[in-house]
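User: Before I run my own analysis I want an independent prediction to cross-check against. Here's the chain; please return only the structure tokens and, at the end, one sentence I can use as a sanity check.
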Amino acid sequence: MAAGALDTRADTGLSEEQRDFVDALRDYCDRELGPDRLRELTDGFGDLHNEDTARQMAELGWYGITIPEEYGGSGGTFSDAVLFLEETARGQAPIGAYGVTLIVVGALNRFGTEDQKRDLLGRVAAGGGLAIAMSEPEAGSDVAALKCAARRENGSYVLEGTKMWCSYAHKASHVLIVCRTERTDSPHEGLSMIFVPRDAEGLTITPIDTLGGRETNELHLDGVAVPEEALLGHEGGGWTQLMAGLNNERVILAALALGLAQRAFDDALAYAKERRQFGRPVGSFQAISHRFADLATDLAQVRLLVRWVARLTDEDPDRMLPQEASMAKLASTELAKRCALEGMQIMGGYGYATEYPMERYLRGALVQTIFGGTSEIQRNIIAKTLGL
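Assistant: Structure tokens:
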């Protein structure tokens, strides 16, 4: 570790095995994923998920974290997964689909049938991807307003509708569609979750170009028929199943944002130590050094928060943690944005130039305060838990 750098392993809650795990991940990213290699693997940083890298990590046993060994995984805790997410995000590993895959893995572990687990979890453990589709053109933060519908017909579910912002559906073997199987007076009732294969007849996946690259999609379901066995959990239980997975989803996104924040900080710090102006390193000027002091303090605080919520989840996976999980997601994503913005300002024109990665970090950080529940939604949830 470079002199003066933050030790992201310096949490007394980590076991020796977990510290070794972080070291192995960091060594892999440093050795295998240099700038030139990353550019090659991501097609010029436009495609942030490389399937060969995912399979390589699967062979190392890393992709099967939180998947039981009987389904091809390596076991491990949710805390282990958080360490993996943070360190691979920091190392810029091109496995962008893994975060959303892990969200679906959590739902499968909790609600899946034996057949679903053996098939879908086995695919993930081998390096495959899964996706989930919730948002629609008129249903974003208000998920209960969704209109995509599924009806029973001749032993199948037939799905009709449109989904928006479905991350990495184009890399997934299956997409978990949140849809209406019954119309009721309550918008939270009558929702179900149904797996649809990516190559299903009637499913059209259209990429949406974004600041961050080719990562998300619009989905059209035109009479897509899947067997009744594709239902996750029970019919009409979709809202409850979604709520049960929110803790995991928000902490997963928080860990990814934390890794990106750390990477932006590390790069800016290295630049500030090397770049000289007026006869000395720019980092020696108080205006710059105090920025790093504040960011380093925030990184340490947010890391403790994210790992604490992960441990609470491991202690009782059924416990709802709306306040704590929302705090973790809010704090991490806003910090990632701040680290990238500060990094760009500190690096000046070099931070703005596409030749250097800071502008890419900023593009990646901006969306993290939007997906998975915006920062405003997280603040609403936290305020509600305070009785406001």
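Sanity check: Strands lie at 130-133, 149-153, 156-163, 174-180, 191-197, 203-210, 213-227, 231-232, 276-277, 280-281.
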